[in-house]
Amino acid sequence: MISTAPVVPELLDFLNEATTPFHAVDAMAWRLAAAGFTELDNLNSRDIEAGRGYFTIRNNSSIIAFRAGRAPLSAGARLIGAHTDSPNLSIKPNPLKIRHGFVQLGVDVYGGALLNPWFDRDLSIAGRVNFVDQHGVLQDALIDFGRAVATIPSLAIHLDREANQNRSVNPQKDILPVLLNADKSDGQITLQALLSEQLRIQYPEYEDLRIIDFELSLYDVQKAAVIGLNEEFIASARLDNLLSCFVGMKALIDAEPHGWSFLVCTDHEEVGSSSAIGAQGPFLIDVLHALSNSDDENRSLRQHSWLLSVDNAHGIHPNFSDRHDENHGPLMNGGPVIKVNRNQRYATSGMGAAMLKLLAESAEVPIQTFVVRSDLGCGSTIGPITAAETGISTIDLGVPTLGMHSVRELAGAADVDYLNRLLIQFLNHRA
């Protein structure tokens, strides 16, 4: 059997906690705090001590953590970038529909989700709720039902004989989850009432509250797991891209404190990153400006820094190998993947790829390369966006994944350890 590194079971625990971007940031924050990092609402260079770790959060769904180096900031930093969001089904503001004896939820598709795998899964609800407490103060809190409360039943094949040949999914009509059985009294039911009841369970201190708004999504309650006859795979929801967030956080905690090191995990990558807290927003720029003592130091910092944009890569699928370029099919458990696209859908340059290959050699980590087929469109990452916004030289990297954007994805257990070792080497290397 494959011997999995300690990072793998820790990753599974994290994946099970991080049911939404809000929960992912919360799970990272308490782990960073336990490792000695200090949360700061307002960054100021005068408050930073060399060798110590800090983090700051925006919107409860984006986080930047860093360890202050003993070397000058102008000498540059090593940054790891990832994103906290994953494709999902998000609950609409007025979602409840009572139809044919069922109470159902209206949902929006967030990001480029594979929809068919959402059918016949045990689904729960999680997210952030805004409410007025018993003192009339507007509050927000994370909520997670933590159990299966909904499902999206498939239409029986007897009623759709072409289902295995040609079934498309209409996101407005076909994927409304069933929440509960309706009777005559359910005409007055509201989602706010259900949320209030759950909030009181999670937060007994709020004796009286009124729900004002919410940001909620559905998730599959099946736990993350190590699978495969030799336990060589990790199966879980949200591997894209919480795997990268967690391993990046572990590397930041374990790296040497000599140079400046950052972890940048932002929301909204799956919908383009164009938001106040996305990679195209001002979050990272604001942090770098706050830590710099002058414009010259800030400019020197960015010119001498490297950023790894770590986002899952397309592993070669044994049933669909023709969807890969024949020389660029990353293998599961074959090591992290450098992602290259000359049209700048990925930010990797020849110099960046060469540097990373040398670091992989020194860390004894196998490395692979992905280039999309010339006749297929190429996805993108936070890499080109962050490079354009900051001017920081950037490399796109990720572990091979199957089922990307499905409700349950697959990655290699050995690749998690490989990535962890490579990221630590990246943060420690300053030449």
Question: Can you summarize this structure?
Answer:
One of its GO terms (cellular component) is cytoplasm. By secondary structure, the chain is an alpha/beta fold.
Give your account of this protein's structure:
- With 431 residues, this protein is of the alpha/beta class.
- The protein folds into 2 domains: 272 residues, 3-Layer(aba) Sandwich (Aminopeptidase); 133 residues, Aminopeptidase i, Domain 2 (Roll).
- It contains 9 helices and 20 strands.
- The strands form 3 sheets. Strands 1-2-3-13-4-14-18-16-17 form a 9-stranded mixed sheet, sandwiched between helices. A 6-stranded antiparallel sheet has the order 8-7-10-5-6-9, sandwiched between helices. It has a 5-stranded mixed sheet with strand order 11-12-20-19-15.
- β19 and β20 form a beta hairpin.
- α1 crosses α4 and α4 packs across α9.
- The chain is globular and about 65 Å long.
- The two termini are 38 Å apart.
Q: Which outline best applies?
A: globular
What is the succession of H and E elements?
HHEEEEEEEEEHEEEHEHHEEEHEHEEEH
Mean pLDDT: 93
Question: Largest beta sheet: what is the strand line-up?
Answer: 1-2-3-13-4-14-18-16-17
How far apart the termini lie comes to: 38 Å
- SS element count, helices: 9
Q: Assign the CATH architecture of the largest domain.
A: 3-Layer(aba) Sandwich
Q: Major β-sheet, in short?
A: 9 strands, mixed
CATH superfamily of the largest domain: Zn peptidases
**How many DSSP-defined strands?**
20
Per CATH, what is the topology of the largest domain?
A: Aminopeptidase
Protein name: M18 family aminopeptidase
Family: Belongs to the peptidase M18 family.
Keywords: Aminopeptidase, Hydrolase, Metal-binding, Metalloprotease, Protease, Zinc
Enzyme class: hydrolase
